Amino acid sequence: MNSWPVQTLNHTIEEDKDGKQPEEPEKQEPEQTQQRRMARRADSTNDTSGGATKGLKASWNHVMTQIDKLHKKGFRGSGIQIAVLDTGVDYNHPALGGCFGKGCKVVLGASLVPNDGDPNDPMDRHGHGTKVAGILAGYDEKDNRFVGAAPNATLAVYRVIKGNKQVEEDTLAAGWVRAYDEGAKIIVSSTGFPGFSWPYSLAATVVSRIVEKGIPCVVAIGNTGYAPFDVLNPAAGRGVTAVGAPGNSVPVPLKRGGYMNDSGTSFACPLVGGIMALIAEARGTFDPAEINSLLMANAAPQVEQSQVTGPKGLFTVMQQGGGLVQAWNAAHAATLVKPGSLHFNDTDHRPSSISLEIQNTAKSEVVYELSNIAADTMYTLDGEKFERKQHPHRRIQAEAAINFSKSSVTIGPGQSATIDVSASDPQGVDSKRLPLWSGWVAVNGSDGTSLTVPYLGLAGSLLSTSNSQDLAPSTRGEAPPVPQADGCVTSPPNLVTYAKPGIALNFLLASPQVDVYIVPLNVCPADHSQEPAPAASNQTDSSPSTGACVPESMITDIKGIKTIGQVPGRSKRYAEGASGLCGMARSLPARTLLPAGISLLLAS
Predict the structure, then answer these.
(1) What sequence ranges are listed for the domain C5a peptidase/Subtilisin-like protease SBT2-like Fn3-like (predicted)?
(2) What's domain 344-458's architecture?
(3) Which of 76, 212, 396, 451 could join 152 via S-S bond, C-beta 3.0 to 4.6 A?
């Protein structure tokens, strides 16, 4: 896989008020509410194919995503090994086979957490992984109790998270590699790191390379995020299937037995992983790009509902991706599109057009009509100060102009055609606030085919946008917020603070490289005869001293910037929006004091 050394990241769950780690930190509903919700499961009848799920009732999320229809036709993930990277699994649970090893539901597994129990035993100490595994492939026919998305699939479970939900990135990456090496056909992980929304981290790089090897990888996008462009790592990896919903009130099995409903993108991820197994079983392919395209093009774009006014219009692509997964339609689609989504970048870097290939795999000729389904435009930056906020993001009715080289095309059986799609920014928008526009290219066929290919673009220039919200001196450092394994960010207990001169810099948007330089205003000329000024004292006079200057020998020219050094001691690569830098100029020689005089802090 060719990865590189990485510093261990240690992420900790927040303790409860009693100082104990909660066994089940996900929000639980009252028992009566659970029973009412579970009782609402739609009845899947007319199952005459036998095997797992016969006579069982389909849960609401199976009906909504058409899983129940595939189950009725006998598609249940048979012969497919799916890997799960999480807190482990309670393989003694009846829905998960009641055993571990050859001939069991959980056929393979290990604990990859160093110095934390038996490395050959993936037993769950927390409960999160048991829920994920159950949604993915659980099955309990007793009293119509429970059925997962791919109930006939086998599981390989790798515990990469400690019982208190601490997770280290190198351990997580090792889990992905182990799952690949041991033959997983699909890999699912509902864990990762917030604040690393770049595809270049260790975990994201490893997962991307596994996808390149032909293994579909599904990752939860995260429960929280600071505005657009902020997802859980490694969900940002190239080719990774990043999943957000449905993840609310999902039926799940509990560690040590029993069932309940739980919520979070953690529980959307295994549902889609199971759907992938059903699609692969029905179509005979595990090709990640093809399955991703099938999932997106056959998804159902969702309309926002208001309790007062009713339907309010389509959620944007930034909010819902391709839409609600439709498993049956994806598994039986006779028309394929490539690519599965269209990315038009910002105004400065907009491609002149993107080629959309339509392939007809049916046995008869099909006439396809193309049209545009526009969603609202959403501003990235909110308010007069151009701040980036989590909520709300103002939406306006402004549509991008989408043009097709052909609006209609006839394709014979087994043939394909390419249509060029171009886009231009909506009119009347404030480009300084970086409006994100989106929608779907509708592809409707004479045979009843109805596909929607999501597209996304940005009006304005990311490169030209000032990226610093604040740049201020700081004399107080503290430990940063600690991300949990499921994407929730909490402050660690016993927060340690310490005096440390430096700066606090908040980024408006993410940046691949951030440097902060100390730039002296007074540099001694070459013929300067007096001794260099001493280090700054405690004088209160803020005016520059006429004799205080920085020797030219201390100056380094970096990209045209005449600087003493950097703050902090190293550049920050792949900085996230709303993150910050603290610390003093450790890049200066050891025990060196800044010379007297006035210096600027220049962020680049």
Answers:
(1) 343-456
(2) Sandwich (2.60)
(3) 76
CA distance 122 to 93: 13
Which residues on adjacent β-strands are paired with residue 421? 354, 404
| Residue pair 298/324 in contact by the 8 Å Cβ criterion | no
Q: Which two tokens stand for residue 377?
A: 């435009």
Query: Would you put residue 388 in left (φ > 0), alpha (ψ -120 to 50) or beta?
Result: beta
Q: Where are the CATH 2.60.40.10 domain residues in the chain?
A: 344-458
Q: Which of 58-67, 89-98, 277-286 has the lowest mean pLDDT?
A: 58-67
Range list for CATH 3.40.50.200 in the chain: 57-286
CA 199 to CA 523: how far, in whole Å?
42
Q: Which of 74, 238, 221 is nearest to 151 (CA)?
A: 74
For residues 445 and 299, what is the distance between their CA atoms, to the nearest angstrom?
16
Output the CA torsion 139→143→145→150 (10° steps). 30
Instruction: Give pLDDT, residue 191.
Output: 87
CA 265 to CA 246: how far, in whole Å? 8
Tokens representing residue 154 in the block: 């086998």
Q: Which residue has the higher pLDDT, 544 or 574?
A: 574
Residue 393 confidence class, pLDDT cut points 50, 70, 90: low
CATH 3.40.50.150 for domain 57-286, yes or no, is no
Give the range among 42-51, 105-114, 308-317, 346-355 with minimum mean pLDDT: 42-51
- Mean pLDDT confidence for 429-452: 95
Residue numbers annotated as active site: 86, 128, 266
Structure confidence at residue 198 (pLDDT): 82
- Helix locations, 317-385, DSSP H: 317-320, 327-332
Angle of the 288-297 helix axis to the 269-283 helix axis, nearest 10: 110
5 CB-near residues (< 8 Å, 6+ apart)? none
Residues 6+ apart with CB under 8 A from 191: 85, 86, 160, 161, 167, 172, 220, 266, 485, 486
pLDDT at 544: 45
Q: Which residues of 310-324 are buried (b: 16+ CB within 10 A; e: fewer)?
A: eeeebbbbbbbbbbe
The CA distances from residue 31 to 186, 188, 548, in Å, are 34, 29, 73
Beta strand extents in 45-114 (DSSP E only): 81-86, 106-111
Instruction: From 417, 434, 413, select the one nearest 364 (Cα to Cα).
Output: 413
